[in-house]
Amino acid sequence: MISTPSNDDADPLALERQVCFALAIASRSVIGLYRPLLEPMGLTHPQYLVMLALWGRTPLSVKELSGMLALDPGTLSPLLKRLEAIGYLRRDRAVTDERQLAVRLTPTGQALREQALAIPAAIVARLGIEVDALVQLHSSLTRVIEAAGEQP
Q: How confident is the model at residue 6 (pLDDT cuts 50, 70, 90)?
């Protein structure tokens, strides 16, 4: 557990005062809450993010998906291969441009969405934080991402 910095602690290099440290710990902790919910679905957290994007809109080009997830194609490609191997998506040449791959859900991948519908509520319950506070946190984190030069 990280300690809260005291107001009179003037050391700008104190570990507890670092935004990067708090973000790293929060990220690992929250992603860890997803693991037992995703395991029965055969998904890792990064694969879940791919599925979330595709449940929102399919087909997507690899380039579009890469931009949405802020992942380079070299990182995204193994995720897509694994999801294709377990039957959740297909990668086909795009009809409009054969140089691009179109990623689309299979019927199995689309059906998995029903099971995933329970995940957000389970995470909110596990965190024990009001939804309004989580919405505000999301907004603050989006501003941090934008300020750091990343696109959300």
A: low
Number of other CB atoms surrounding residue 130 within 10 Å: 10
**Cβ atoms of residues 37 and 122 within 8 Å:** yes
Alpha-carbon distances, residue 99 vs 92, 93, 102 (angstroms): 10, 7, 10
Q: Tell whether pTM > 0.85.
A: yes
CB-CB contact of 106 with 87 (8 Å): yes
Measured CA angle at 38 (ends 33, 40), to 5 deg: 130
Domains and CATH numbers, the chain: 16-139 (1.10.10.10)
Nearest partner of 123 among 131, 115, 114, judged by Cα? 131
Instruction: State the Cα torsion 18-19-24-30 to the nearest 10°.
Output: 130
pLDDT tens, position by position, 98-135: 777 899 999 999 999 999 999 999 999 999 999 999 99
Residue entry with tokens 């897509």: 80
